Amino acid sequence: MTALLQIRDLTVTFATRHGAVHAVDGVSFAVGRGEVLGLVGESGSGKSVSLRAITRLLPDFARVSGQVAWQGEDVLAMSPERLRRLRGGQIGMVFQEPMSALNPVLPIGLQITESLIAHTDLDARARRARALELLDLVGIAAGPSRLSQFPHEFSGGMRQRAMIAIALAANPAVLLADEPTTALDVTIQDQILRLLRGLVDELGMALVLVTHDLGVIAETCDRVAVMYAGRLCETGDVAAVFARPRHAYTAALLQAMPGEGTRDRKLLTIPGQAPRLDAPAIGCAFAPRCALVRPICTTDRPVLQPVAPRQSSACHAAADLAA
Amino acid sequence: MTALLTTTDLAMRFPGRHGLTDLLRGIPRPVVRALDGVSLDVRPGETLGIVGESGCGKSTLARCLVGLHRPNAGAVRYQGTDIATLRGSARQAFHRQVQMVFQDPYGSLNPLMSVGASLAEALAVHRIVPPADIPRRVQDLLDRVHLPATAANRYPHEFSGGQRQRIGIARALAVEPKIIVADEPVSALDVSVQAQIVNLLQELQTSLGLTLVFITHDLRLVRHLTHRVAVMYLGRIVELGPTEDVFASARHPYTQALLRAVPRLVPGQRSRDVAVRGELPSPLAPPPGCAFHPRCQRAEPDCAATVPALALREGHWPVACLQADRAIAHSSTIATSTPSV
Predict the structure, then answer these.
(1) pLDDT > 90 fraction of chain B, expressed in percent and rounded
(2) N or C: which end of chain B has fewer CB within 10 A?
(3) Interchain pair A218, B267: CB under 8 A
(4) Interface contact A265, partner B, CB < 8 A
(5) For position B227, what pLDDT does the model report?
(6) For residue B294, which of B219, B233, B235, B335 has the smallest C-alpha distance?
(7) CB A293 within 8 A of CB A285
(8) Over 50: is that where the pLDDT of B147 sits?
(9) Is residue A95 part of a domain?
(10) Do A70 and A219 belong together in one domain?
(11) If 0-12 CB within 10 Å is exposed, 13-18 middle and 19+ buried, where does residue A80 land?
């Protein structure tokens, strides 16, 4: 499989009054056609910043280095003109809070059409037909009357469907979705996740899904990349990572989840809290909270390396976790 | 077992938004029925989960339970006495014995008071200990929620989200309550920190014999933490039963849909069928009959006409579904539709 999007050694540093914040620290991953990659981590782990760095949506005071390759083309060095065609054209984006991503004073139909004007040669008639087709695709019934409605007339779930319709307007090859269901109720989340998964299977898109919910990863993604404090802990096929996590953080996170079978025991807790990002750890960022910590963890930064077929881990205890 | 806290036919209505043009046109002010006939009991020593999606009335119910809202109809009784009739010291005693923990502890702690002062205030107002013993009791409380003694001199903004929730819990514990009503206490926290708070709540319940009412939208937490669960939909309880039984064989179609919708932690079990179609109807204009009927696959014509009462319906725990009795006869077909979370 050839990667559509290849990220190598992505590093994002924010210059603040209190010094530099290392939000993303040497992250590499790739995603190919028809594949769903989940980027999972807790707040501040750098998952959303990584996603936004791909299409250069970060503010000016962010310093981005590393490589973002779109079908071999360097995105970080792209001209503004080329970047404009890529964003919303070949790469579609869906955000967490559709109400703040949609324009409140424009009807939904016009917002879909804007994207079609920018990225396609369709005439007005064909654009309307395409807009209706898109609404149908994302499961918004009664399309014609919906096109003239405003975002505030839509429910939360419908707004997210409309966001997805806009993102799909120009037939993107990759969809980047940043916590698309976090603000939604569980039955609506279920509908949206199945819609996204269905679109990937039908249209052969690639999807990068950022979430903090391991359940969303397990049910929706093919591969997963686990992030902690701006760094990648573990990547691999979802089935392998969930069955046999090979990073101490992934293992702890899975055991901290309540659910079936945890009733009669205490949840495993991860002591302490996520580290500050203004002074990156010399060794493993998770070492201060890790139950499997050893001397090398505080002195040598573990490198992400293959530990099993289609599974890589950056953990000095990876071999112990295999047992 | 006698209930500690009961609600009977609790109803709570809020006025909806009413614009000037609506007023001039003579359109009546819309009314949101946040609670519509909620009856339940909280038993001593149990953890009762109240679960539902946004707008189902679970937070309104929590606020009625602790006396923060005065219901429009029905009653909340604490140890048999209607709390609306409590006055003076009896009312103060009720507020001391039934405490609330909020989702956002930052919004419920005074930012200008040190943590120690916040805790001391609660101890002094309710005269829990003689003034001379207050500093020691503050230290005890911090210790109970696993915060260092130095926390007393610090201010809320100096703590992380998880630590702040510990302070919120310590504040509730200060007045030695019998019941803690916790409204989404861990929803704002990351998984690793959430587990610490969940364990703490369980630990406190065992060591202090607390009764816990746990309001959440997270079904995984309900399954882990609660003994009984009340499932709410649009202001009503649709099912109320022992947690394990409800998770094993939910009887209400909405409960079944909710359980199907929770993403499981086991990869490779993805189905392409959605758990339930449609969206939550507007609480301003709830559907007639059973509020769930427009989304329900088992709906029959009578579901649109009759509001189903929460009743046993030939099962072991009450459910508000007209089709539930019928379902018992075909239980084999339904058991397969409720996967585990």
Answers:
(1) 72
(2) N
(3) yes
(4) no
(5) 95
(6) B233
(7) no
(8) yes
(9) no
(10) yes
(11) exposed
Residue found by looking up tokens 């980027």 in the block = A39
Counting as low any pLDDT under 50, the low residues of chain A are: none
Contacts with B, A 149-168, CB within 8 Å: 155, 157-158
Nearest to B238 by CA among B79, B40, B78: B40
Give the separation between CA A290 and CA B207, rounded to whole angstroms.
28
Residue B15 in 3-state DSSP?
strand
How far is the alpha carbon of A264 from chain B, nearest alpha carbon, in Å?
8
CB contact under 8 A, B274 and A257: no
CA Rg value for chain B? 22
B338: pLDDT strictly greater than 70: no
Q: What is the pLDDT of residues A11-26, one digit of tens each?
A: 999 988 888 999 999 9
List Cβ neighbours of A210 (8 Å cut-off, separation of 6 or more). A38, A39, A40, A47, A48, A50, A51, A176, A177, A178, A179
Domain ranges in chain B?
A: 245-264+275-341
Same domain, yes or no: A120 and A51: no
Asked if residue A139 is part of any domain, the answer here is: yes
Which CATH number goes with the domain that contains A227?
A: 3.40.50.300
Compute CA B42 distance to the chain's CA centroid, rounded to the nearest angstrom.
11
B277 CB near a chain A CB, below 8 Å? yes
All residues of chain B having their beta carbon less than 8 Å from the beta carbon of residue A220 are 263, 270
Q: Report yes or no on A264 lying in a domain.
A: yes
Write down the pLDDT at residue B236: 96
The tens digit of pLDDT for each residue in A203-226 reads 999 999 999 999 999 999 999 999
Q: What angle do CA B213, B175, B2 make, to 5 degrees?
A: 45
In angstroms, the CA B36 to CA B236 distance is 6
Cα(B229)–Cα(B139) distance, rounded to whole angstroms? 35
Structural element, H or E, at residue A100? helix A98-101
**Closest Cα in chain B, distance from residue A97 (Å):** 16
Report residue A19 as tokens: 């010094």
| pLDDT band of B327, cuts 50, 70, 90 | low
The residue range of the domain holding A184 is 3-90+175-322
Residue A109 covered by a domain:
yes
Which value, to the nearest 10 degrees, does the dihedral of the CA atoms of residues A281, A283, A288, A292 take?
160
Nearest to B192 among A194, A218, A270 (CB): A270
Q: Which of A185, A190, A258 shows the shortest C-beta gap to B220?
A: A258
Based on the domain organization, do A79 and A114 belong to the same domain?
Answer: no
Arithmetic mean of pLDDT, B56-78: 94
User: A31: Cβ–Cβ under 8 A, 6 or more apart, which residues?
Assistant: A3, A4, A5, A37, A174, A206, A207, A208, A223
